[in-house]
Amino acid sequence: MITKNDIKFIQSLKQTKSRKENKMFLVEGNKLVDELLSSNFKVEKILVTDLWLEKFPEMASRLPFYDIISQKQMEQISCMVTAPGILATAHTPYYNISPADAENEFIIALDGINDPGNLGTIIRTADWFGIKKIVCSRDCADAWQAKTIQSTMGSIFRIEIMETDLKEFISASQHLSISATPIYGALMEGENIFTKKIEKKNGIIIIGSESHGIRQDILPLVTSPIHIPRAEGSKTESLNASVAAAIILATINN
Amino acid sequence: MITKNDIKFIQSLKQTKSRKENKMFLVEGNKLVDELLSSNFKVEKILVTDLWLEKFPEMASRLPFYDIISQKQMEQISCMVTAPGILATAHTPYYNISPADAENEFIIALDGINDPGNLGTIIRTADWFGIKKIVCSRDCADAWQAKTIQSTMGSIFRIEIMETDLKEFISASQHLSISATPIYGALMEGENIFTKKIEKKNGIIIIGSESHGIRQDILPLVTSPIHIPRAEGSKTESLNASVAAAIILATINN
């Protein structure tokens, strides 16, 4: 049974504050709920409408449990313009990504990525290229909001993501490792990413924010400056943050 | 003087139908109006509010002409949640991209890219890598709508873009050229884009739609199937369309 208070609580999870306090988030739509159910995430509730049940009997038969709510209630809790008719609540996982991990694999460090669409797209791209760990500065968009989750297309359930003090995290990676862990960052005077030799698939890849790039107090931590060369004569000032991230991840990893 | 009818007309340019009929479009915000003014586009009107004039006297002094309208009128014609206070109308240029051009340069062919953000991001990325010509299937998002133009960050003023019958266009490129013009398309069984040798920087690069990839009747036209390899074990089904486009443009061009 779903009470009025349940609806009120679920509705509150649209807000970052409530998601952080309750360590829970919302997942909407067939594809994403499907991906949630095949993940290790702890699912709390699955809510569907009668209309959804009629339309998707096959998927309904696969749901481990669910409650039926009215169309009006669904519209109240949905984050989308048109409510897809199925919404689940789940517990936010806790990941402990250690700076020492960068000795043996790539870690992406997002510095102030504040567009949820860009954040989600970067998570999806990381998943494609097999990069499993992402650390975010505290002013990044919230990974557990609807817009981000939609943009990940389900990759959010397969990537470890942690909010942290980026400067501390990156600095720590330098003290912890025996050999020097490379810290990659896109800078104008960096080395051409298409010709740079990557010796070992490890280190931290910093992706700067949409408007300011990598922030001033993090810049000195970059040990391997890289650069995506622009065509001669091009007047574009920058690439979209998720596009720049994708080109870096693709070339560094291949 | 701006009349009520002028406002009504400008407001109509929010709609694709009116933009196509009148061959005009809207440009909003300081950065984009600046880029418009330094382009060869024919500008019709520049509208500002008193508040904008107070805030940006330097830019105001650079405007070749302008009319002042009320905040209320600005909100009526603005496409943005918060109206930036400056909006221009301009004439849509006519570009004639010929299939024969693909003999000597890259042309991007967009097959049903229907998200305006993706379309704008692809235009911006093309501009970065010095690709000057984009042809769009008729079911692509409209390049002259506010969301696309915003996402291009001004690149829309530097790239030639043309709507066309993609199948006809690509087929024609094969008959016209003396040597075979390569037609690149991302397919699962394509050649690894990171190891493929690109002999000459020319040909047509097809980018498939967000949901269906390259459509069935265009697939047989691909002569150089390519592939962005996914990490072993990754369960992601696909990359975002503008991310896939960026990785292809970056690697093919460098």
Structural account:
The structure is a homodimer of 254-residue chains. Chain A has helices at residues 4-12, 16-22, 30-37, 50-55, 57-62, 71-77, 116-128, 146-152, 166-176, 241-252; strands at 24-28, 43-48, 67-68, 86-91, 106-110, 133-136, 160-163, 183-192, 203-207, 224-227. Chain A has 254 residues and is of the alpha/beta class. In chain A, the strands form two sheets. Chain A has a six-stranded parallel beta sheet, with helices on one face. Chain A is elongated and about 60 Å long. The A-B interface holds A 117, 121, 124-125, 127-131, 151, 153-155, 158, 194, 228-240, 242-243, 246-247, 250-251, 253-254 and B 117, 121, 124-125, 127-131, 151, 153-155, 158, 194, 228-240, 242-243, 246-247, 250-251, 253-254.
Radius of gyration of chain A: 20 Å
Largest sheet of chain A at a glance? 6 strands, parallel
Largest interface: A-B, 36 and 36 residues
Strand content of chain A: 15-25%
Helix content of chain A: 25-40%
The multimeric state of the shown protein is homodimer
Set down the secondary structure blueprint:
Two copies of one chain form a homodimer.
Chain A: H1 4-12, H2 16-22, E1 24-28, H3 30-37, E2 43-48, H4 50-55, H5 57-62, E3 67-68, H6 71-77, E4 86-91, E5 106-110, H7 116-128, E6 133-136, H8 146-152, E7 160-163, H9 166-176, E8 183-192, E9 203-207, E10 224-227, H10 241-252
Parallel strand pairs in A: 2-3, 5-6, 5-9, 6-7, 8-9, 8-10
Antiparallel strand pairs in A: 1-4, 2-4
